[in-house]
Design goal:
The chain has helices at 17-21, 35-45, 53-60, 74-84, 98-111, 125-137, 167-170, 174-189, 282-294, 304-323; strands spanning 2-6, 26-31, 48-50, 64-67, 88-90, 115-116, 141-149, 196-202, 213-219, 225-231, 242-249, 252-257, 260-264, 271-274, 327-328. It is α/β, with parallel strands linked by helices and 329 residues long. The protein has a 9-stranded mixed β-sheet. Strands 3-2-1-4-5-6 form a 6-stranded parallel β-sheet, with helices on both faces. The protein starts with a strand and ends with a strand.
Length: 329
């Protein structure tokens, strides 16, 4: 299988490298505007390099593509690949706004082109644990809370991703960049369909153009809610980030801890489960799953429809934060 990699100066790309190299797929070409990036990874993958991703697609005719790129470029990249009939993976958020993702999703369905999205929390041990609690113990979660605090926004300038600090190119800050993963998890655990959003954002900590703190409350009038907090407010340190959560059902309280997860059940000893909650290795799991989907061995696990659902919440959250009011979904 001949694979091309587009616009690889994206900060997630290094998380894919080892699994791409060991996949058995033939990496035939890469593209990026940055010469240093092109040369570095062209040597690593021993493949052709292109300044313009359009030339790469036209000249190499790959079987499938991993598309990265700046958020404001994703709509053009995606529509071009769909028009060519090339199956591909595209990083979230798939554009700078909901309408970009809606357009991609509509076109992909019309052209019957496979498009995968790395909503990688779906591929992790926590998701498997939650699914097992629901299936085996009848867990019915009514409230969930998620916190994901990454390093300061200036780190993007150090890895050729200055555009992340420009809202016209990125679409925003920690809300659009980090929250979709946890919105996706939260929506799938809501006991009733979400119908109300309230959100707040600010950039007080780093005083950049983009928000560095965001809080979203997703709720249903029939009951159930999810609270999601994301931020660029973790120090630049050897410890990468903070990721914590708690999930509530009548007979289960599932909570993160330093070693993984603890589960509290009525009248029973607390169960401690050691699992790796680091999301970085999940990109490798995703790579393997995408290849299996391309080969027809697995169904698509996360695609544009899932991203569209998450981005709808993102867009409403920005509107809520801007108006300081709750907004109906």
């Amino acid at each position: 299988m001949k694979i091309a990699l587009l616009e690889i100066s994206h900060w997630h790309f290094p998380l894919y490298i080892e699994d791409l190299l060991s996949s058995g797929a033939e990496i035939i070409a890469i593209s990026d505007k940055n010469e240093k990036v092109r040369n570095k990874y062209g040597d690593k993958f021993n493949c052709k390099t292109y300044t313009d991703w359009r030339h790469l697609v036209n000249e190499t005719k790959p079987d499938a593509i991993f598309a990265f790129g700046e958020h404001h470029e994703m709509l053009e990249i995606g529509t071009s690949l769909i028009s060519e009939g090339i199956p591909f993976s595209i990083e979230k958020p798939g554009g700078i706004c909901l309408s970009d993702v809606i357009e991609l999703n509509k076109l992909a369905k019309q052209k019957n082109v496979l498009v995968s999205v790395p909503l990688v929390q779906r591929f992790g041990p926590l998701k498997s644990l939650i699914d097992n609690l629901i299936k085996e113990e009848g867990a019915f979660f009514t409230s969930t809370s998620w916190r994901f605090n990454a390093g300061p926004p200036q780190r993007y300038s150090n890895i050729f991703c200055d555009w992340m600090l420009n809202s016209e190119k990125s679409g925003g800050g920690c809300l659009i960049n980090l929250a979709p993963h946890f919105i996706d998890l939260a929506l799938n655990l809501m006991p009733h369909k979400a119908d109300l959003i309230f959100a707040q954002t600010d950039s007080l900590l780093h005083r950049t153009e983009i928000e560095d703190t965001a809080t979203i409350c997703i709720s249903s009038k029939k009951g159930g809610r999810a609270l999601i907090e994301t931020g660029y407010n973790f120090p630049d340190s050897l410890s990468k980030r903070e990721y914590s959560f708690s999930l509530v059902s009548k007979n289960h309280y599932v909570q993160s801890n330093a070693d993984g997860v603890c589960i509290v059940r009525p009248g029973k000893a607390i169960e401690y489960i050691e699992i790796d909650l680091d999301s970085d290795p999940l990109y490798g799991v995703y790579v393997e799953s995408f290849f299996e989907t391309l080969l027809g061995n697995k169904e698509l696990r996360s695609g544009l429809s899932d991203l569209e659902d998450a981005m709808k919440i993102v867009e409403l959250a920005y509107a809520s934060a801007g108006s300081n009011q709750s907004i109906a979904i």
